[in-house]
Design goal:
Elements lengths: L6 E4 L1 H5 L9 H14 L3 E7 L11 H7 L7 E6 L2 H10 L4 E7 L2 H8 L3 H17 L3 E7 L12 H12 L6 E5 L6 H14 L5 E5 L6 H10 L4 E4 L19 H9 L9 H15 L15
Parallel strand pairs: 1-2, 1-8, 2-3, 3-4, 4-5, 5-6, 6-7, 7-8
Helix pairs in contact: 2-11, 4-6, 7-8, 8-9, 10-11
Bound molecules: zinc ion (ZN).
Zinc ion binds next to loops.
Amino acid sequence: MKNHRVELVEVGPRDGLQNESAIVATADKLELVRRAIDYGVRRIEVTSFVNPKRVPQLADAEELVAMLPDHRDVTYIGLVLNRRGAERALATGRIGELGAVCVTTDTFGIRNQGQSSDESLAAAMEIVALAREAGRGGQITIATAFGCPFEGRVAIDRVVEMAKRAADVAPREIALADTIGVGAPAQVAETVGRVREAVGGLPVRVHFHNTRGTGIANVWAAVQEGAAVVDASLGGLGGCPFAPGAAGNVATEDVVYMLENSGVATGIAIPSVVEAAEWLAGVMGRSLPAMVSRAPAFP
Ligand code: ZN
């Protein structure tokens, strides 16, 4: 079932940065997007259209989006949590795809976005419909798909049921996100396999955080089960402001290294990712969690 080619979505500008307390300049975010295009990524989650009081780091969403380079092959993704966010994203004219997020548990849903699990799924489905009406793409992420910081392990049946319902609005893809980095490879393999069966040919994307060291193994388990798209963040930046203890995303350079050296093409050039990660560490003023960009070049 393993794919020999997967698509990487760079989520550094949004998920990577949103938990950083020091505000990163819009010009640096723009440079991050430019570099992601240079190293070969063709879908980039650039920002989210949420309440700037809740996520001050992304308060420059409209300003950043207006400055994004025109690139025929590149899709810019804006994350939205409700109709208002969707309208803001669509009004920019530059966001080609809306990323909607639903959550598996009521407790996380209420804290993260003021919605129960079912309400968050209904909202996500509405966002995909709005995107389609506007001639844009829409995709749905099931967050906390492998565990919730408040309710613990999440039953795979619940994830499968949500994915099945989400598939009714024919999103571009369905993503399974390990928001707090608690998943392990066997669980990931089973979940991805069962979700793929349930969604009738829709691509499955995966999103992992390396909070407990299982992130990269989870990517591998997911790809083995046919996940077609993988989220990653340059340098391994990232966290979630509403998920206690959430650590960085899997790092773009680490995922590319693992996949390319295992016969799975990503379309991404390691030397330019590593150079970009070194630049980003300079912007952030510290070394970043990724491993490949801190190790000697090989071969
Ligand atoms: Zn995340």
